[in-house]
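Table S2 (text version). Query chain:
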Amino acid sequence: MEERVAVIGAILKDPTRSQSQFNRIVAEYHDLVRGRMGLPLKDKCMSVISITVVGSMDQINTMTGRLGNLEGVTVKTAISK
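Corresponding structure-token output:
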């Protein structure tokens, strides 16, 4: 399968509720993750996370789908051609 590069952007509304589940899912895909940056926005009660991954479309879509199904988490992904 062809590998793609993707950037997954996530906003966690009330991270105290979803952060541990979010981190658990990301850890399951550690072999895809090339970099991660998180910014806590405590005054807004949110966290913004950017994850760079390299993998097949199936792997990227599965990871993104699982993250996006978490309550209070919004996910968008940009994938290379």
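Notes on Table S2: The chain has one domain: 4-79. The domain at 4-79 is CATH 3.30.70.1150 (Alpha-Beta Plaits).
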